[in-house]
Amino acid sequence: MQTLKQSLASKKFTITAEICPPKGTDVSDFIKKARLLKNKIAAANVTDNQRAVMRLSSLACSVLLLKEGIDPVFQMTCRDRNRIAMQSDIMGAWTLGVKNILALSGDHVSFGDHRDAKAVFDIDSVQLVQVISKLNNGTNMKDTPLKGGTDFFIGAVVAPEAEPGEPELIKFEKKIEAGTRFFQTQAIYNMNQFHKFYEYAKKFDVQILAGILLLKSAKMAHFLNNNVPGVTVPKHLIDEIEKAPDQLAKGVEIAARQVKELKTFCDGAHIMAIGQEESVPAIIEMAG
Amino acid sequence: MIITKQKDFFKILEYLKGRNNIYLFGCDSCAEQCETGGDKEVKAMAYLLKNEGKKITGFSIPAETCYSMLVKKYFREDKDMIENADAFLVLACGAGVKAVADAVGDGKPVFPALDSLYLANVTRYGHFFEGCSLCGDCVLGETGGICPHTQCPKGLLNGPCGGMVNGKCEVNMENDCAWIVIYRRLKAQGRLGILKRIAPPKDYSNSVKPRTVVVESRMKNK
């Protein structure tokens, strides 16, 4: 099994995709989707209760992927655990064989299905990267030596289309300083703007996987715009999908078009199919 | 100022079920300004409770009900206050409720009529904005006087999250993203360098509850 780290180091265009854990313990669909993606992607991200909706743990699902021979990217948000639980779970993931981790802030609980929950945010995503770096160096975040540390390939998220952009770029550089080695971006739509971001980002020793979000239908695009933090699907794309006789096919075509363009300059793409993982192989195939 | 909001009246009636002689406390400070526990609100509560068949044995509105010594004085001056009441209902913040409960002692129940919400700035007359969380580890010197621990719903310390859209907050699009406001202010002051340094995790050891402060010099004067 080639790992995400090896794929990116080989300089070949690297594709990752996101698989969402089930709302319950029946993992049959999750495994089915994983098998569809096996050997077509370099690694699969496992989301951590995304949109603050409670699902099966990202750590457990990452281990399930390992058993299927897929390199998992264990996503960890700062929303649900304090610094003690986070370090403990990060080390736990390492002992179970997980090699990649993606540090995120996490969507606020007010978006989810447990709106009365306490939003923890004991540390933030930059500090989380620092914590993982320390564990990688064999100490806990208090600099106390551990009996065995970790050696994670550390990833983080950046929003290249954030407006205003400067504070986002300052945070991006802090994530790099903290030890981030690869970035998976939030969904991108403006390829020219992304290209400029990429040129700037390549001044640093990091790999960039551009976020591609599969739009299943015009209705879904509207839903994303209204309900998912940081996602703004431009009107021209929604119009293009709306006019198509088969909206899903059009969404796949648009995603493939974006991946194809990324292949001309970027390190890779991260495909977020949000429940429509079975379409990912078609996107990859169409992108050539 | 401490912001308070009246609890659902049915919740208050539930507290007072089976207790017919009620003594009311208001507060002439914060709760008066929030219009939750001043003279007007205490009298309105008395009226509503009378309509429910309760007897109001009396009421007091101390200048500051959080001032435990002041509240105790009311009880010293009216020895029958505890005797005559089955329960006390306090239209003040939680500190006010505690002051009354401590003064009453173990024998009779004391109930809150309000929920205590937050420490606020009065931004306009009748407008209360939460700008400080009393965390015990102030970072305002590095953030242009804007508290990311309070104005950012996630309390992030190193810049905006991915949910920021056009300078607005993902949790409430009416609100400015705290980090964009901080960024603009630091930039205007030529202090963006501060934002480029990684802020360390917050030190919560300063906020282990309950916190107590004794001002020694004040003690000596007494």
What is the overall silhouette of chain B? elongated
Report the helical percentage of chain B. Answer: 25-40%
Instruction: Outline the biggest β-sheet of chain A.
Output: 8 strands, parallel, barrel
Q: How many whole angstroms does the radius of gyration of chain A measure?
A: 18 Å
Question: What would you note in describing this structure?
Answer:
The complex is a heterodimer of chains A (288) and B (222). By secondary structure, chain A is α/β, with parallel strands linked by helices. Chain A has one domain (4-216, 259-278): TIM Barrel. Helices cover 41% and strands 16% of the residues of chain A. Chain A has helices at 4-9, 28-37, 58-67, 83-95, 125-136, 166-178, 191-201, 218-227, 235-243, 247-262, 280-287, and strands spanning 14-19, 43-46, 72-77, 100-104, 153-158, 182-187, 207-213, 268-272. By secondary structure, chain B is α/β, with parallel strands linked by helices. Chain B has 2 domains: 2-118, Response regulator (Rossmann fold); 137-198, no CATH class. Chain B is built from 10 helices and 7 strands. In chain B, strands 3-2-4-5 form a 4-stranded parallel beta sheet, with helices on both faces. In chain B, strand 4, helix 6 and strand 5 (110-112) form a beta-alpha-beta unit. Chain B starts with a strand and ends with a helix. Chain A binds chain B through residues 78-79, 83, 104-108, 110-111, 119, 121-127, 130, 141, 157, 159, 162-164, 166-168, 170-171, 173-174, 177-178, 186, 229-230, 232, and chain B through 153-167, 170-171, 179-180, 183, 187, 192, 195-196, 198-202, 204.
Provide key terms for this protein.
heterodimer, A: 288 residues, alpha/beta, 8-stranded parallel β-barrel, 8 strands, 41% helix, B: 222 residues, Rossmann fold, 2 domains, 4-stranded parallel beta sheet, 34% helix
